Amino acid sequence: MRKLITATLLGSVLASTPALAETINLKVIGQPLATGLIQKNKEQPFFENLAENTGLPIKVNYKPLDTTGIKDVEQLRVLKSGLFDLISLRMSQVSRDEPTILGLDLVGLNPNFEQGRKVVAAYKDTVDQRLQERFNTKLLGVWPFGPQVLFCNHPINSLEDVKGLKVRVYDQNLAQFVESVGGVPVPVAFGDVHQSLALGMIECAITGPSSANSAGWPEVTTHMLPLGFQLALNGYGINLKAWNKLDEQQQQTLQAAFDELNEEIWRYSEELFLDASRCNVGEQPCDTGKSFNLVEVPVNEADLATVANTVTQVSYPTWAEQCDKSNAQCSANWKRDLADIVGL
């Protein structure tokens, strides 16, 4: 009887004791090391300290994209397969698998950070819904590298001077724009651009000033045209199987952490854009990058008008036709979300 009572009491105590939370392992792919300071100073520290800062029962294994052997265009397929649980998505590159995503950053849509914030706020839920349906992926936020500008190793005085030049692009929408102004679009992975410029395989390339500075593009170019074509939006996607391992409170905690990170990167990205733009042309202060001596090509009114008109004349029509083929409601949803912001 004594043994029976003892066993009963012990069972009651164990039943009333909360079970220790099972550790959830998160395999994470980050931005490429080559992209520079956002990856180094914001993203990687966030993931390395995520468990400690949130108190969540998670263990993060973080790897920059260019250390994995995985290509950026494969990111959504990798997430869907469950090979990795969470990925820092390079939006333009993965839009080849899901054109709906490219509606976030059509050429001419986001000429500055302020407009970009409005577009993301209005359209990200539509992108999230599509990613959940097709790729079993939840979108945890969207952030920018900043305005994407033109670097050339060939003298230019305006956008007109890219006629006949081979220009590195990173998505189909940008390729169509380059064609519309007479250039020859050439898709080149970011890590291969420096060598391609040095060897003369391309004459120009498009990226943000900070990424270009970190990757040494000013070593192999001579001119920079600071005309913003896109905002180079990126985002964080988590496989729904990994997301659903968390209870509702844990999900809210994780989402709040990503909301804070995304907001921090928006601010930091703008600081980097301004500083790196100065660094690339040898101006001061230059606090975040290496000083170079590129020729800064003045942006004229005609070039500004060309980019501004691109949304209605080139980027939206060509994208809408392609996107509707894979997602019948694509362009209708885009108009519903963004027509007032864009001014259609």
Automatic annotation (TrEMBL):
Residues 244-271 form a coiled coil. Gene3D superfamilies: Bacterial extracellular solute-binding protein, family 7. CDD domains: PBP2_TRAP_BpDctp6_7. One of its GO terms (biological process) is transmembrane transport. Pfam families: DctP. Residues 1-21 form the signal peptide. Keywords: Coiled coil, Signal. The keyword Glycoprotein does not apply. PANTHER family: PTHR33376, SIALIC ACID-BINDING PERIPLASMIC PROTEIN SIAP. This is ABC transporter substrate-binding protein. It comes from Oceanimonas doudoroffii.
